């Protein structure tokens, strides 16, 4: 078997100070070459800290991380040459043009002038930024700036790409445009580690995901496998004025696997939607049922069933 593109072993990070925070509490991960791996979890789960250690921004308290086989803490310069990094923060040089941002990045990573110019032009073309090339970076929209950050991150041909909440704050159209580009990079065999708290993003982009909470991996696997692990094919969300007392009756219905409180009222997991929905409606009518949604369970459902909390809480 090929060695992992990213290997995280026994990672612990404690931020010091008067009230120390155990941000990462023993994380182990292996990401295979060419895989797109997602770290999914709520704010504060320790995702950015994990990526921070992988990308040499954060020093680990304990544990070992290798990227493309290189120990990131023992040999950060060589490790950095193998990785591209995009975060939700704009780290572009705002005083330069779009082309200059790409050119200087290529120069920084050791390309000669002519090679860097060629590569910058290739990136402008590939990321559909040609018409912005001589424009000032500070004038780019959020979506365009993020596209340029991605172009810059891959300009030195890294084998591993770290995307830390890359679409946070973007409008849906820019988000989709970025997903398309990530899909293209995947198809070229780039290994991607993505952090997100958008479960659709993890679900649609990742071959495997790890759901993290309080600095620990709760569960990991292919998204479809994690959803199947719920043992339920249908999620019924009930909007109720008065959920009190309804739960035991619903739990007793054949085909219902789980009932839990939700911000709307109650969430019901069932083996399938067959026959059970009318019975649920009949039971809920006396409890101020105002609306209901019948959907497939998502990775968020997996998170809720593991923690009892919403990802956005
Ligand atoms: P996530 O990316 O999942 O939102 P983070 O890794 O950013 O989580 O944060 C994990 C925990 O570590 C949080 O409690 C956060 O407040 C804390 N934290 C993050 N960065 C620092 C820092 N530089 N100093 C102190 N605490 C930090």
Describe this structure in words.
This protein has eleven helices and 14 strands. With 313 residues, it is an alpha/beta fold. The radius of gyration is 23 Å and the shape is elongated. The chain has a six-stranded mixed sheet, sandwiched between helices. Strands 2-1-4-5 form a four-stranded antiparallel sheet. Strands 12-13-11-14 form a four-stranded antiparallel sheet. It has helices spanning 47-54, 76-81, 98-108, 113-126, 142-154, 172-187, 199-205, 223-228, 247-251, 276-284, 299-307; strands at residues 6-15, 21-31, 36-40, 62-67, 70-71, 83-87, 160-164, 191-196, 208-213, 216-221, 234-240, 256-261, 265-270, 289-295. The site of adenosine-5'-diphosphate has 11 residues, from strand 2 and helix 1.
Defining traits:
313 residues, alpha/beta, Rossmann fold, Alpha-Beta Plaits, 14 strands, elongated, binds adenosine-5'-diphosphate
Task: Characterize this entry briefly.
By secondary structure, the chain is α/β, with parallel strands linked by helices.
| β-strand number | 14
Strand content: 25-35%
What CATH architecture label of one domain applies? 3-Layer(aba) Sandwich
Distance linking N and C termini: 40 Å
Runs in which pLDDT lies below 50 for 5 or more consecutive residues are none
Quaternary status: single chain
- Percent helix, as a range, is 25-40%
Order of helical and strand elements: EEEHEEHEHHHEHEHEEHEHEEHEH
- Full CATH superfamily name of one domain: P-loop containing nucleotide triphosphate hydrolases
Question: Helix tally?
Answer: 11
Q: What strand order characterises the main sheet?
A: 6-7-8-3-9-10
- The CATH topology assignment of one domain is Rossmann fold
Radius of gyration: 23 Å
């Amino acid at each position: 078997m090929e060695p992992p593109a990213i290997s995280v072993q026994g990672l612990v990070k404690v931020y010091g100070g008067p009230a120390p925070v155990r941000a990462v509490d023993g994380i182990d991960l292996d990401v295979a070459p060419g895989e797109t791996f997602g770290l999914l979890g709520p704010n504060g789960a320790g995702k950015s800290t994990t990526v921070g250690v992988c990308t040499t921004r954060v020093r680990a308290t304990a544990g070992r991380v290798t990227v493309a086989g290189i120990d990131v803490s023992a040999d950060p310069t060589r490790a950095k040459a193998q990785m591209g990094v995009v975060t939700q923060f704009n780290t572009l040089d705002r005083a330069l043009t779009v082309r200059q941002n790409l050119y200087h990045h290529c120069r920084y990573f050791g390309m000669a002038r002519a090679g860097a110019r060629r590569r910058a032009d290739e990136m402008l073309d590939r990321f559909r930024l040609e018409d912005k090339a001589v424009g000032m970076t500070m004038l780019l929209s959020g979506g365009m700036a993020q596209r340029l950050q991605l172009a810059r991150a891959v300009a030195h041909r890294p084998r591993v790409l770290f995307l830390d909440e890359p679409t946070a704050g973007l409008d849906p159209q820019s988000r989709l445009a970025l997903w398309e580009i990530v899909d293209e990079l995947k198809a070229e065999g780039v290994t991607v580690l993505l952090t997100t708290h958008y479960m659709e993003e993890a679900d649609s982009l990742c071959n495997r995901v790890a759901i993290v909470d309080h600095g620990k991996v709760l569960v990991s696997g292919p998204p479809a496998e994690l959803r199947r692990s719920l043992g339920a094919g249908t999620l019924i969300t009930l909007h109720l004025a008065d959920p009190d007392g309804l739960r035991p009756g619903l739990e007793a219905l054949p085909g219902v696997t789980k009932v839990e409180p939700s911000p709307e009222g109650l969430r019901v997991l069932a083996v399938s939607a067959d026959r059970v929905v009318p019975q649920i409606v009949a039971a809920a009518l006396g409890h101020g049922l105002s609306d209901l949604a019948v959907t497939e369970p998502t990775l968020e459902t997996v998170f809720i069933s593991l923690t009892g909390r919403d990802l956005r809480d």
